[in-house]
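Continuing the batch. This is chain 6 of the set; chains 1 through 5 are on the previous pages. Same settings as before, nothing changed between runs. Recording input and output for traceability.
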Amino acid sequence: MVSDRRTSKWLNVLCGGFALVAVSTVGYLVLVDRRMSEGVQSWKPSKHADVQGLASAAVKAMHEGDEAEAERYYLEALTLRPLNESLQWGLAQSLIGQGKREEAWEVYRKLVEAPEVPGKMAAGGTDALAWYADLAMEFGRLEQAAQAIRQIDFRNYSTDTKRQLSWAHLWAQSPPSARYGTLHHAQRSVQLDPKFVTARLCLSDALGNLGRRAESERQLQEALDLAEKGKWSDWLVVAEYYRRHKMPVESRKAEAEARRRIGKSDARAWLSLYLFTRFTGTSGDAGDRIALRTAEATVRSEDGKTLIKLAEVYNWGPKNLELKKKYVERARMVTKPSEVRYCYRLARLIAELGQKNEAIAMLQRALPYADAFERPFISHSLKWLQGHPETSYGAVASSIQVYGAGYLPEE
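Output for chain 6:
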């Protein structure tokens, strides 16, 4: 990115790079030296002479629940490889496990705020971002916390901070094979938002995967008790939990309870139910049609979000060009430029109807309202619509898939 016609710029970059490496190295050596001298004086160097052996010993200690021992192994490994991001990430995890949140915050800051390549996902991926967001909120770094949350969970429409952080931890859960990370995220999610049914069910899963069946069943019962007092959508989450656990009878009962609780004129809820049953295949064609027809019959003319979702239904579900056009036209009349995500989705539908100039105009109106996360999606789509050769519809289509909302309703 630096012009080859300006040698001085290359020198500045190289000097800056050497300085960054030097500062980072010294910073981590200072941190390691401080941690080795505070509270771990009685610990003697391990028998592992190489970084790989130390890292393996640290991971083993983490899985055995001995975070203090893991911290010591990570610290010793970092004396040999102070810039190794995986070791830094592991150290941060071990500190979190011991409740040493201020020290963990310093490590996560280096991982997330100063990546090797600008825009690169932090080492540790969503795990590091989730803890960074959590700690940033705790230490008053609200803007940084919001940015990290958006990187993790781009579909999050919640305005409640605790729920946002709770979702962030759920999205950051490790695969089932990495059970330690999964359990810690699920536990933190419940701690942040004890009345969050989804978090309780994820914790039930994590405990069950570890063979802790009694605790798993207690969390499931907590989730069911919360759903009983909660919203209709909580029962859809319960239905999906039972479906994944191959309990079809219980899943159908939970779905029926969700259906029973939906208001007759709540178009958005009926459409969410339709999308859920469509994706999971739990209700069958008749149940799908009832939910979809009810949504169409009750949608209000000013509800642009639901109108856009109905247009998308007829785009990828039962094909009906006339209905798609009808809902697109109705949505265009009420969707505001400040509703950036929905402008983005509506522009795609408009472009697919052959009205590229109108789609470009809609995105251009929305662009000034886009935040740092939304802007690249809008800009890339504009380039594609304007015929830039370096962009492709495939890239735009894939970004739409990740940027669009799922079947659960916004909060």
